[in-house]
Amino acid sequence: MTAQLKDTWFDPAATTFGDRLAGAREQSGMSQADLAKRLGVKLATLKSWEDDFNEPRANKLQMLAGILNVSLSWILTGEGEGIDAPDDVLDGPGDVQDLLLEIRDIRSQLARSSDRLGRLEKALRVRLQDVAA
Question: In whole angstroms, what is the distance from residue 64 CA to residue 108 CA?
Fold first, then answer.
Protein backbone atom coordinates (compact mmCIF):
# COMPACT_ATOMS: atom_id res chain seq x y z
CA MET A 1 0.00 0.00 0.00
CA THR A 2 1.25 3.44 -0.76
CA ALA A 3 2.03 5.69 2.19
CA GLN A 4 -0.63 8.09 0.96
CA LEU A 5 -3.36 5.44 0.98
CA LYS A 6 -2.30 4.14 4.39
CA ASP A 7 -2.34 7.68 5.80
CA THR A 8 -5.82 8.38 4.41
CA TRP A 9 -7.47 5.04 5.11
CA PHE A 10 -9.60 6.57 7.88
CA ASP A 11 -9.00 10.19 6.94
CA PRO A 12 -11.08 12.46 9.20
CA ALA A 13 -12.25 14.46 6.19
CA ALA A 14 -13.32 11.40 4.24
CA THR A 15 -14.84 9.09 6.83
CA THR A 16 -17.83 9.31 9.09
CA PHE A 17 -18.39 8.15 12.64
CA GLY A 18 -20.23 5.13 11.24
CA ASP A 19 -17.34 4.27 8.92
CA ARG A 20 -14.87 4.32 11.79
CA LEU A 21 -17.19 2.33 14.05
CA ALA A 22 -17.77 -0.36 11.42
CA GLY A 23 -14.07 -0.52 10.56
CA ALA A 24 -13.00 -0.88 14.18
CA ARG A 25 -15.69 -3.49 14.82
CA GLU A 26 -14.65 -5.50 11.78
CA GLN A 27 -10.97 -5.32 12.73
CA SER A 28 -11.83 -6.59 16.21
CA GLY A 29 -13.53 -9.60 14.58
CA MET A 30 -16.96 -8.89 16.05
CA SER A 31 -20.26 -9.06 14.24
CA GLN A 32 -22.79 -6.31 14.66
CA ALA A 33 -24.83 -8.63 16.88
CA ASP A 34 -21.78 -9.37 19.08
CA LEU A 35 -20.97 -5.72 19.61
CA ALA A 36 -24.60 -4.77 20.23
CA LYS A 37 -24.84 -7.47 22.89
CA ARG A 38 -21.63 -6.34 24.60
CA LEU A 39 -22.89 -2.75 24.65
CA GLY A 40 -26.36 -3.72 25.83
CA VAL A 41 -28.13 -2.12 22.87
CA LYS A 42 -30.43 -3.46 20.20
CA LEU A 43 -28.92 -4.60 16.92
CA ALA A 44 -31.01 -1.97 15.10
CA THR A 45 -29.45 0.72 17.29
CA LEU A 46 -25.91 -0.35 16.42
CA LYS A 47 -26.83 -0.55 12.73
CA SER A 48 -28.21 3.00 12.87
CA TRP A 49 -24.89 4.18 14.34
CA GLU A 50 -22.87 2.46 11.61
CA ASP A 51 -25.21 3.87 8.96
CA ASP A 52 -24.82 7.38 10.46
CA PHE A 53 -28.53 7.76 11.18
CA ASN A 54 -27.94 8.19 14.92
CA GLU A 55 -25.02 8.56 17.32
CA PRO A 56 -24.53 6.93 20.70
CA ARG A 57 -24.62 8.77 24.01
CA ALA A 58 -21.39 9.61 25.83
CA ASN A 59 -21.42 6.52 28.06
CA LYS A 60 -21.79 4.21 25.05
CA LEU A 61 -19.07 6.10 23.18
CA GLN A 62 -16.63 5.41 25.99
CA MET A 63 -17.65 1.76 26.06
CA LEU A 64 -17.22 1.53 22.27
CA ALA A 65 -13.73 3.00 22.40
CA GLY A 66 -12.72 0.58 25.15
CA ILE A 67 -14.23 -2.51 23.56
CA LEU A 68 -12.80 -1.69 20.13
CA ASN A 69 -9.42 -0.63 21.52
CA VAL A 70 -9.40 2.81 19.88
CA SER A 71 -9.25 6.27 21.39
CA LEU A 72 -12.43 8.19 22.03
CA SER A 73 -10.99 11.00 19.93
CA TRP A 74 -10.44 8.67 16.98
CA ILE A 75 -13.92 7.17 17.04
CA LEU A 76 -15.40 10.68 17.11
CA THR A 77 -13.10 12.59 14.77
CA GLY A 78 -10.72 10.15 13.09
CA GLU A 79 -7.74 11.73 14.84
CA GLY A 80 -5.78 9.85 17.46
CA GLU A 81 -5.17 6.18 18.14
CA GLY A 82 -7.33 4.15 15.77
CA ILE A 83 -7.00 1.16 13.51
CA ASP A 84 -4.79 0.40 10.55
CA ALA A 85 -5.97 -0.29 7.03
CA PRO A 86 -7.08 -3.90 6.49
CA ASP A 87 -4.33 -6.26 5.32
CA ASP A 88 -6.21 -7.22 2.16
CA VAL A 89 -5.97 -3.62 0.95
CA LEU A 90 -2.29 -3.41 1.86
CA ASP A 91 -1.46 -6.05 -0.74
CA GLY A 92 -3.69 -4.71 -3.52
CA PRO A 93 -2.28 -3.78 -6.92
CA GLY A 94 -1.44 -0.15 -7.66
CA ASP A 95 -4.55 0.46 -9.76
CA VAL A 96 -6.76 -0.66 -6.85
CA GLN A 97 -4.93 1.72 -4.54
CA ASP A 98 -5.41 4.54 -7.03
CA LEU A 99 -9.13 3.78 -7.23
CA LEU A 100 -9.42 3.78 -3.45
CA LEU A 101 -7.69 7.15 -3.27
CA GLU A 102 -10.01 8.57 -5.89
CA ILE A 103 -13.08 7.23 -4.07
CA ARG A 104 -11.89 8.81 -0.82
CA ASP A 105 -11.24 12.10 -2.59
CA ILE A 106 -14.74 12.14 -4.08
CA ARG A 107 -16.26 11.19 -0.73
CA SER A 108 -14.42 14.06 0.93
CA GLN A 109 -15.64 16.48 -1.75
CA LEU A 110 -19.20 15.23 -1.29
CA ALA A 111 -18.99 15.75 2.48
CA ARG A 112 -17.79 19.33 2.01
CA SER A 113 -20.52 19.98 -0.58
CA SER A 114 -23.15 18.51 1.71
CA ASP A 115 -22.04 20.80 4.54
CA ARG A 116 -22.14 23.79 2.22
CA LEU A 117 -25.57 22.80 0.94
CA GLY A 118 -26.86 22.58 4.51
CA ARG A 119 -25.57 26.07 5.33
CA LEU A 120 -27.16 27.49 2.16
CA GLU A 121 -30.47 25.80 2.93
CA LYS A 122 -30.46 27.23 6.44
CA ALA A 123 -29.70 30.73 5.12
CA LEU A 124 -32.51 30.41 2.58
CA ARG A 125 -35.00 29.36 5.26
CA VAL A 126 -34.04 32.32 7.42
CA ARG A 127 -34.49 34.71 4.49
CA LEU A 128 -37.84 33.17 3.56
CA GLN A 129 -39.04 33.58 7.15
CA ASP A 130 -37.93 37.21 7.09
CA VAL A 131 -39.85 37.83 3.86
CA ALA A 132 -42.96 36.10 5.22
CA ALA A 133 -42.89 38.15 8.44
Answer: 25
